[in-house]
C-alpha cells in the first residue's frame, strides 16, 4: 500500500472505538470533495452518491471514488459527470419502481423481490441500475411521501378547482391506537371514467369530534369558493359524528354549501345489511370464531401449546388470527385459518378439556 496516499494516511486502527464524523474532514482537501456531515455522527453523507454511509467506511469509500476519477485522469471533469449521470439514473430507477408499486396498489413487501427480479433481466443498463440501487420499503416510503404523493395531491387539487367532485371521508385507526381522518376524492377523469383517489390522511390526535373534523375539511380541502361550488356531495358512514342532523359534519358543511347533499356510504350500508340479514344464520359462526380467537389473542402459552401439537401431527405451524369485528374482512380470514388448522385445534381443545382448563368447544 502507498503510505503517501492522502486517503490511507491516518487510517484508524480497527481496535479503536466506533469512528465518528470529524469537522477536520470538512477542511481536508481530499475528504471535503466527497463527504459532508455533522460532528459526532456515526454516518457521513457522500456528495457524489447522495447517500449516508458509516464513518468506518469513509476511507474505502473515498478510495473508490478516487479510483474512478483517476481512471479518467485526462478528463477529470468527465469522470465526475459520469458519476453524476450514474446517480441520476439510479434515482430515476428507484422512482420508477416506487411509482409501479404505488400505481398498482401493491404491498411494500414486494419491493425487494421485484428488485431481485429486475436484476435477472437481460437489459444491461437495467441490471446495472438494479445492482447499484439500494431501494427498500423504507426508501420507497420516503419517495412516496416526498415525490409521488405531492404530485398526486396537486393533480387532485387541480381537479377540485376546475370540475365537479365528491368527498368521501371516514375515521380509521392503526394498531397503536392512533386515529386518522381519511379524505378521498371521487371524480370523472378525462376519459369520463369514475375514479376515487385518496387525497389526504390526517392525524386526529385526541379530538375526533364533529367540530374538529369539519374544521379539518374547511382548512385542507374546501378552502376556496371554487371548491365549494364544485363540491356535489359528502359521503360518510351513518355515525352521529358524521351524519347527525344538527351538529354532524355533513350538517355543518351543508350550512355553508346549500346545494350539497349527503350520501350514506354504500360500503357501510352493505355491511349493515349483511350483518342484520345474517344475524340468525351467522350468529353462531361469529361467536365460534370469537371464542377460538380470544383463546389465543393474548396467550403466548396457548400459542406455544398449539405449535407443539402442529409439530407433532406434522402440519405447518401457523398462528390463529385475531378477530377484529370492525375490520370487515377479518371474519373471513379468521374462519379460513381455523378451517386450515382444524385438526390441530381439535387436539388442542381436547387436551385442555382433559386438563379441565377450559371445556372443549362444542360446534
Principal-axes shape call: flat
Q: Which structural class do the helices and strands define? A: alpha/beta
Query: N-to-C SSE series?
Result: EEEHHHHHEEEHHEHHEHHHHH
The CATH topology of the largest domain is what? Nucleotidyltransferase, domain 5
| Cα-to-Cα separation, first versus last residue | 77 Å
What portion of the residues fall into strands of 2 or more residues? 5-15%
Strand order of the largest sheet: 6-5-4-7-8
Radius of gyration computed on alpha carbons: 29 Å
Low-pLDDT windows of residues: 1-9
Question: What is the total domain count?
Answer: 4
Helicity, as a percent range? 40-55%
Number of helices: 14
State the name of the first-level CATH class of the largest domain: Alpha Beta
How does the major sheet shape up? Answer: 5 strands, mixed
CATH architecture of the largest domain: 2-Layer Sandwich
- Please tell me the overall pLDDT: 80
Number of strands: 8
What does this structure look like?
Mean pLDDT is 80; it is low at 1-9. Helices cover 50% and strands 13% of the residues. The termini are far apart. It has helices spanning 58-70, 76-103, 111-119, 124-132, 137-162, 210-220, 225-230, 240-243, 249-254, 266-277, 279-297, 300-313, 330-340, 342-355; strands at 35-36, 43-46, 52-54, 165-173, 179-188, 194-203, 231-236, 261-264. The radius of gyration is 29 Å and the shape is flat. It has 14 helices and 8 strands. Helix 2 (76-103) crosses helix 4 (124-132), helix 2 crosses helix 5 and helix 3 crosses helix 4. With 363 residues, the protein is of the alpha/beta class. The chain has 4 domains: 1-71, no CATH class; 76-141; 163-269, Nucleotidyltransferase, domain 5; 279-355, no CATH class. The strands form 2 sheets. The protein has a 5-stranded mixed beta sheet. A 3-stranded antiparallel beta sheet has the order 1-2-3, with no helix packed on it.
